[in-house]
Specification:
about 10% strand, alpha/beta, Beta-Lactamase, 10 strands, Hypothetical protein af1432, about 525 residues, 5-stranded antiparallel β-sheet, Rossmann fold, elongated, 3 domains, 5-stranded parallel β-sheet
Length: about 525
């Protein structure tokens, strides 16, 4: 609306490049967007001419143009990453610029873009009133904007915008770390933890490139834990994405170039992250690391976020290793108790081992999740643990038990349950349920509670089948092993009586695989 144009001085008096040897910028775009909103075309031309050679942090300017307040709002909707808005106050209306500020800040919720009001009619929008009432970052009269002052104003605004973006990226990055760490700390197995860490690192730095998780030296839960030298020559790829996806269990020194191996060794020796022009090595204190290949160069914020994340992940690894040690101890206790019971009751040599593996197999065939299938495998050795409370004259009697003796024998279910029920550990809770319910029958004629149908826990129903199958398949001092045809007929006859009919169908349909496994793990 004004005929006042900028008063220019020699452009040679200004330097259009900030000294920034690192070229480090958090802004992901290849240029800085500046929106010029003014109803005078000449203002657009002169502003563009004055600023066209500016580079901030080694990135040039991209100019966007609006000639009304409404156009400015629409362009910002499409370009929310605009760094600076040079906004005329008076365009299609006397306050269109001020109205645009309200929409940008309150409706578009764009708090990042720097807004500089420019007016050729300062009387229509007094500076003090505007600064106090509107969320703008500067107020300039067009007559005061020489080329040098315009440059200084724009440069300062870009620096301010970049600082805001850095802070926002830091906030978002820390939020990702908090979420990622929470997710990772929920993982209870090393395999899932490794996969989760790899995925979360890629998410934090916002890339989808080839990467792998590698480990050297002792690695609880991994078959290569005998390694004891912490360098790339003894590193195994545990999990990978992209071109490393099919390199699992391969030595790193057979996969990467000598130059990259050199950087990995530096990470190990100096125990910190290493960043090169086209790769990133995230060092984790548990003698493992993440290698990311062909990624964009990380800025300082992203590097700092990875430093924080790697420290948190190390704690997660230590927790999982501790959990796995506890789990291994629980397994040993369970198998030792199960073996003791097996030995005392003169069960055949590998009975509990076969029941354990076959229960997992049937659970998987029945559609149970991997976690539950593994839980029943670990807990099943305790199904007869209550027999340690049965007197020898009853437990070891070769003849048929009397009614009174059988009543005593039946108490092994409640004895086992009472032994195990007080533990809060999932394995012992599952073992307690199995010990209590594995003698229940589908039709309700079992013991000790007389449960029927689906009131019997799925673990109890599964153990009931595999325990009886193994017993029928075994030779005892008082009987010969049954033939496979007789065993199949027995289970068919007992469907809907002793056993869950659906589980029986699954078992019979896969009978050969169970029989083959039974033969493979025969009695010692």
């Amino acid at each position: 609306m004004s005929d006042d144009i900028f008063e220019f001085i020699d452009d040679n008096e200004v330097t259009h490049q900030e000294n920034n040897p690192d070229g480090d910028s958090t802004h992901s775009s290849s240029s800085w967007k500046i929106l010029i909103a003014d109803d005078e075309p000449s203002i657009h031309e002169i502003t563009t001419l004055a600023l066209k050679d500016i580079r901030y942090e080694n990135k040039p300017i991209t100019f966007l143009h609006a000639y009304t307040g409404k156009q400015a709002i629409e362009i910002l909707k499409q370009n929310p990453d605009t760094a600076l808005l040079l906004l005329d106050v008076v365009m299609e209306t006397d306050d269109s610029g001020l109205a645009a500020v309200e929409v940008i800040r309150n409706q578009l919720n764009n708090q990042s873009v720097r807004i500089i009001l420019r007016t050729g009619q300062p009387g229509s929008a007094p500076e003090l009133d505007v600064i106090q009432k509107y969320d703008i970052n500067d107020y300039k009269e067009k007559t005061e904007l020489t080329s040098k002052k315009l440059f200084t104003t724009v440069y300062t605004a870009l620096r301010s915008y970049n600082d805001i973006i850095r802070l926002e990226q830091s906030r978002q990055g820390l939020e990702k770390i908090i979420n990622a760490t929470a997710d990772i700390f929920r993982q209870q197995s090393m395999e899932k933890l490794v996969s989760g860490v790899l995925m979360q690192v890629m998410s934090i730095i916002g890339i989808d490139e080839s990467a792998f998780y590698g480990h050297s030296s002792s690695f609880i839960g991994h078959k290569n834990k005998q390694l004891d030298t912490n360098d790339a020559n003894n590193m195994i790829i545990i999990s990978g994405t992209g071109k490393f996806e099919d390199q699992i269990n391969r030595p790193v020194n057979q996969t990467l170039t000598p130059d990259i191996i050199h950087h990995i060794n530096i990470a190990y020796q100096e125990k910190h992250n290493v960043f090169t022009d086209d790769s990133c090595i995230v060092y984790l204190r548990n003698n493992s690391l993440i290698y990311i290949d062909g990624y964009k160069k990380l800025n300082k914020i992203e590097q700092s976020l990875l430093d924080i994340f790697s420290a948190n992940v190390t704690v997660a690894f230590e927790n999982v290793e501790l959990n796995e040690e506890i789990l291994e101890t629980q397994k040993e206790v369970i198998f030792t108790l199960g073996s003791t019971t097996e030995f005392r009751s003169n069960e055949t040599g590998n009975h509990i081992a076969r029941v354990s593996e076959m229960s997992r197999k049937l659970a998987k065939l029945a559609g149970l999740p991997e976690e539950e299938a593994e839980l029943i495998r670990l807990a099943s050795p305790m199904h007869d643990v209550g027999k340690i409370g049965i007197p020898d004259n009853i437990l070891l009697k070769p003849e048929k038990l009397t009614d009174d003796e059988f009543e005593v024998m039946k108490t092994h279910t409640t004895i086992g349950y009472d032994l195990l029920k007080h533990s809060s550990r999932p394995i012992f809770q599952a073992a307690a349920t199995i010990a209590y319910q594995h003698q229940e029958k589908w039709d309700g004629s079992g013991y000790p509670q007389g449960l029927s149908g689906r009131d019997i826990h799925i673990f109890g129903r599964i153990i009931s089948i595999v325990d009886v199958f193994d017993a029928l398949s075994s030779s005892r001092c008082y009987k010969d092993a049954w033939s496979e045809s007789d065993i199949k007929k027995y289970f068919s006859d007992q469907k809907n009586k002793h056993f869950d009919p659906e589980l029986v169908d699954i078992f019979i349909n896969n009978f050969e695989s169970f029989a083959d496994f039974r033969k493979e793990l025969g009695d010692d």
